[in-house]
Amino acid sequence: MKSDFICHRKHLFRDSIYQIEIQNDKLMLLNTQGIVKYSLSLNWSVEIQWKISSTDPAFGFQINQKFKWFYAKPKTIEILRCTLKKHITSSDFQIFYNIGSYISKGQNSYCYELFQNGDDKMKYVVKLIKKEQIGQINQLYNELNILKILNHPGLPKFIEFFNTNNTYYIVMEKIEGSKLSKLNSTKYQQLSLIQIQQIIFECMNILQYLVQIQVIHRNIQPDNIIYDSKVQTTSVKLIDFAKAIKVGTDLKLLGTPGFIAPEILKDKQISTDSDMFSLGCVFYKLLVKQDLFQGINLEETLKENKKCLFNLKNLQLIRIPQSAQHLLTLMLEIDPKQRIKPQEAINHPFFKESMDQSVSPKIISRNLSLSKSIRNLEGIMISPKQNQMNELDKQILVDYFQNELPPMNEIPIMKQVKGGCRFSLNNSSDTDTIRKSKSEKNIKIISLSQN
């Protein structure tokens, strides 16, 4: 950063004139002889106040236990604030913004819509954190240090940070769209596979960028992924970097139970590969409408997450193409060293197959019956030859891209029993179809239980 401006400090007889310079992450005020009179290292512990009135604009800070004001032209103050606001703490929140409607609540924070004073069209969001609800201030500073370096269309833009008497404010750009947790739980609208493909593909691009800047998000889950189906490009945003860390940082924080990579729970050294496992858990939930690790409460879910036992073979029952199953298996690899990397995943056949489809990604309502899915599975079991399996999978793929996933009440619940699994169905007609098919064709259902 570099700038070259003039300011002055008022005195009774004669004002002192200073040249403002910003370099090497320092704010320096030089007197007329070119000697540094005041120097501030730019970090979150430095607080600057602003006067933006047209009559006497100024900026001020405390140094040597005294607070000092420095006056300059309005344009100089505007440029200086724009240059510094991502690197220091400001303390005049209400001078610049008005809080709007409530959006959501986090673990120790609240999110509101935000309007810039004098420009109601420019909308932001603010993360409001009460000081008594936060643990160590360094944890907050860690989040800010990561936010300010993010520079990707799929990540939120950090604007500035404020510290008032009782509250911290993190100002961010406003992101349009809906959380995946909301879309995935909607009964009347469901995401098609081509939409899921788009979401996961864009998330892969985001993970690839995070690998480049050596940042681990550590809390990838449906609440932290925003999807906007109205836009054609950059429709996905990954938010909430409260638990993110730089690679090599020792900060003991867990993510969301049910989406945590096993190496984190085993207290082993983690890397950017951990985010891939979490995204795999999201991918599974989008496909199946159920969590990969389930429990009656967060504690039970965390226990299941720690066990890290799961069976992906039931995905064959709901028309999921083999390419999607294969990608998901690579994402959920227990050993992080063997887990697929974002660059490899971007080139996976699952994305190439879906991109070749000409089907519109709009949300639609038609669903194939479960009985057809069961017949497809039976066809695989009857004709085990590879070419026949591939041919059938192509047909499933076409059906899948032209239709939604089945409604939640039509997804079979896999129950392990001795010698295999049984299906628990809510639809009696589909149950009759399965029984009839078994009696007529005498098909032996292969065991889907975990090896």
Structure commentary:
This protein has three domains: 4-91, Roll (PH-domain like), CATH 2.30.29.30; 94-173, 2-Layer Sandwich (Phosphorylase Kinase, domain 1); 178-355, Transferase(Phosphotransferase) domain 1 (Transferase(Phosphotransferase), domain 1). Helix content is 33%, strand content 24%. It has 14 helices and 20 strands. It has helices at residues 74-84, 93-96, 137-147, 180-185, 193-212, 262-265, 273-288, 298-307, 322-331, 342-346, 349-355, 370-382, 386-401, 428-441, and strands spanning 4-9, 16-23, 26-30, 36-41, 47-51, 58-63, 66-71, 89-90, 97-105, 110-116, 119-130, 158-163, 167-173, 178-179, 215-216, 225-227, 236-238, 245-246, 413-417, 420-424. Strand 10 and strand 11 form a beta hairpin. The longest helix has 20 residues, at 193-212. The chain starts with a strand and ends in a 10-residue tail after the last helix. One of its GO terms (biological process) is mitotic DNA damage checkpoint signaling. One of its GO terms (cellular component) is cytoplasm.
